[in-house]
Amino acid sequence: xxxxxxxxxxxxxxxxxxxxxxxxxxxSGTVLTRQxxxxxxxxxxxxxxxxTAACDGEVYxxxxxxxxxxxxxxxxxxSN
Length: 80
Known about the structure:
Elements: H1 9-15, E1 17-18, E2 25-26, E3 33-34, E4 39-41, E5 45-46, E6 52-53, E7 57-65, E8 71-79
Parallel strand pairs: 4-8
Antiparallel strand pairs: 1-3, 2-7, 5-6, 7-8
């Protein structure tokens, strides 16, 4: 019997991660990442694990050292 509906674990891994690149124009509500602790919300970003755009604009990234000296990437949107 075949599995009906949903994604298998093999293909679910492919749907996770970052969905945009730096300099890309996005609209409000666009999904930027799915299930990642590598990226943190910055300016004009909503969410914690699934980051979405709060306004229209251009995506850019910054990197900072966290409390445990690990490098963390922040995602920001430069509004128009």
